[in-house]
Amino acid sequence: MGRLCDAFEEGLSIRQIGLSDDELAGLRGYGLLSLKPMVVAANLDDQQYTSGGDYPGRAELSAWCAERGIPLVELCAEIESEIAELPEADREALMQEYGIVRTGVEQLSQAVYQSLGLVSFLTVGEDEVRAWPIRRGWTARQAAGAIHTDIEKGFIRAETVAYDDLIKAGSYAAARAAGVFRLEGRDYIMKDGDIVNFRFSPAR
């Protein structure tokens, strides 16, 4: 607590102190806000956004976020609303008109994931495609447990293909022919965008 008091008097948050895992564990019960991950979203008006994203105080805000390691996402909620209300076929045209490569919602979601230390893997079935959020650094066996503990316990192998590789190939058959499908063991570290089919032995 003495370390925290000294840091707070210097204007630092707990995120900036560099506490050990044991020290962090001892603080979890206090619900301290400056211990929680943070993302800053700057909502620009239409003119600011279309003129290159410049706005009063931008340099200062960018420097403040960079100094603290806080992601900064700049977006225009008005334009985001227009994009969201359009049919999917018309969204791309509007995004091109504004020079938007990724929507603000996508950027904000990615920033939140990174701040929380999360990645997602995908499972694909005949009637469902689902994303499973897991902690960055989890192994294939731990990821299997996110679906069901029985899959984790009976884990054999993870049949894996990267999302980008599958899209590039165009189909599962083409991806298999290109050799981008892999069989990974229990200690494989899951990557964001992995598409996985877990092989496991059912509990008896």
Main attributes of the structure:
204 residues; alpha+beta; Rossmann fold; Ubiquitin-like (UB roll); 3 domains; three-stranded antiparallel β-sheet; two-stranded parallel ribbon; 7 strands; 20% strand
Summarize the structure.
With 204 residues, the protein is α+β, with helices and mostly antiparallel strands.
CATH class of the largest domain: Alpha Beta
Percent of residues in helices: 40-55%
CATH architecture grouping of the largest domain? Roll
Strand ordering within the main sheet: 6-5-7
What does this structure look like?
- The protein contains eleven helices and seven strands.
- The protein has helices spanning 2-9, 21-27, 46-50, 58-68, 77-85, 88-98, 104-116, 140-147, 149-153, 163-169, 172-178; strands at residues 40-43, 72-75, 118-124, 129-135, 155-162, 182-184, 194-200.
- Helix 10 (163-169) crosses helix 11.
- The protein is flat, with a radius of gyration of 22 Å.
- The model has no long low-confidence stretch (mean pLDDT 89).
Helices and strands, with pairings:
Layout: H1 2-9, H2 21-27, E1 40-43, H3 46-50, H4 58-68, E2 72-75, H5 77-85, H6 88-98, H7 104-116, E3 118-124, E4 129-135, H8 140-147, H9 149-153, E5 155-162, H10 163-169, H11 172-178, E6 182-184, E7 194-200
Parallel strand pairs: 1-2
Antiparallel strand pairs: 3-4, 5-6, 5-7
